[in-house]
Amino acid sequence: MNYVFEFGQVFAAWDELLAGALRTLWLSAASMAIGLVVAIAGALGKTSGPRWLRWVIDAYIELIRNTPFLIQIFMVFFGLPAIGIRLEADQAALLALVINVGAYGIEIIRAGIESIQKGQIEAGKALGLHPLQIFRHIVLKPALQAIYPSLTSQFILLMLNSSVCSAIAASELTAAANDIQARNFRSFEVYFVVTGMYFVLSLMFWGIFAWVERTFLRQPATR
Amino acid sequence: MRSLGPNEIWFILLAVRWTLLLSIAAFAGGTVGGLLIALMRTSRFKGLRWAAIAYIKLFQGTPLLMQLVLAFFVPGIFGIDVDPWGAAALGLSLHASAFLGEIWRGCIEVVPKGQWEASSALGLRYWNQMRHIVVPQAFRIAIPPTVGFLVQLIKATSLASIIGFVELTRAAQVINNAVFQPFTIFGLVALTYFIVCWPLSLYSRRMEQKLALATR
């Protein structure tokens, strides 16, 4: 093994790496938030919408879940201009991530909604609650508790998946790594450090999600 | 400028064989590695369990793209030359090992403890218990999630295009660079992936429902 490691040149670009990590953080947090809204709307449409809407949502879910994310982002970035929608790389990345996580989120949230027993909703109706109140207090919160683990691991997958956005040169951590190694050719060192940074980001998300669960989603004590 | 003719479309469609071949290679490698990880993860020895947990966490906590890029550059450090095909097959196998290992651990742990106790009362040792008692029962429940992961793996092979392996996605990029009709080309490629993946997804879901009914 004659390879000489030169991590110095990687750490010299620490400001670029940090900026990239922050962009990744922002990109994934934004797509988690918007994706969650899409998923809730989609799950509502799928459980109580008209038949044609359910069909459309099903088609969307199957299409997204059975094609690679890389192709989805190419479609958004290179394909959409053909029908007159032109997006910056960063906007395309955000849109593609939202579309992707939305499809997975709908199925997760629908499973949560279906975990609520009918009697609970009927009890809500009997108490004279408005349908929106029933959804918020009787369906949404207990459903969130039920689906929290799968939803959060989907979010972490999304964060890791955002590295694929470098393929259209959206600004995030992997793209920063590509820039740095194009300058100094220390490919292994750069990608090794960046992989470590992604791992730290994952640990951070795992930590935050566990904290949120402990603090806000604890099951009420059963009597 | 070239235009998108039958030759170009044929070139893209034929590249699906490399996608399939890479998926098969990664699934085979992942099966061997995954079995090892699952056995380590359920082992009586703390050291083995911890090593398996560390491996799984590492691969589930870093992007697959980075894993593939490192699979491309790390062998070079040891003076071993790998081409994009070797790097992609290696990276995807290691990746699949972690995920299949975690899936199969769950399936092994579902087998009731009494089965272990009964078989050890019959004088069976670890390997025979695994082979004749535990694995046959775990196998049945492992099918739906394993097929589900296979779909993930087939989609994941598209990332091999980024390290330069010419499979379906890379072939589409090559043609698109020449004819620039991204909507049609990537649409066609999406459809091809869909045709490969959707039946597997449906099968996985059907088996899962069947199993859920059987165990109710």
Automatic annotation (TrEMBL), chain A:
The chain crosses the membrane at residues 25-45, 66-85, 146-170, 190-212. Its main location: membrane. The keyword Transmembrane applies. The keyword Membrane applies. SUPFAM superfamilies: MetI-like (SSF161098). It is a multi-pass membrane protein. InterPro entries: AA_ABC_transptr_permease_3TM, ArtM/GltK/GlnP/TcyL/YhdX-like, MetI-like, MetI-like_sf. It comes from the Bacteria. It is found in: Cell inner membrane; Cell membrane. Keywords: Cell membrane, Membrane, Transmembrane, Transmembrane helix, Transport. Residues 21-209 form the ABC transmembrane type-1 domain. Belongs to the binding-protein-dependent transport system permease family. HisMQ subfamily. This is Amino acid ABC transporter permease. It comes from Teichococcus aerophilus.
From TrEMBL, chain B:
This is Amino acid ABC transporter permease. PROSITE patterns: ABC_TM1. The keyword Transcription does not apply. Belongs to the binding-protein-dependent transport system permease family. HisMQ subfamily. It holds the Pfam family BPD_transp_1. It comes from Teichococcus aerophilus. The keyword Metal-binding does not apply. The chain crosses the membrane at residues 20-40, 52-78, 178-200. It is found in: Cell inner membrane; Cell membrane. InterPro entries: AA_ABC_transptr_permease_3TM (IPR010065), ArtM/GltK/GlnP/TcyL/YhdX-like (IPR043429), MetI-like (IPR000515), MetI-like_sf (IPR035906). Residues 16-204 form the ABC transmembrane type-1 domain. It comes from the Bacteria. Keywords: Cell membrane, Membrane, Transmembrane, Transmembrane helix, Transport. It is a multi-pass membrane protein.
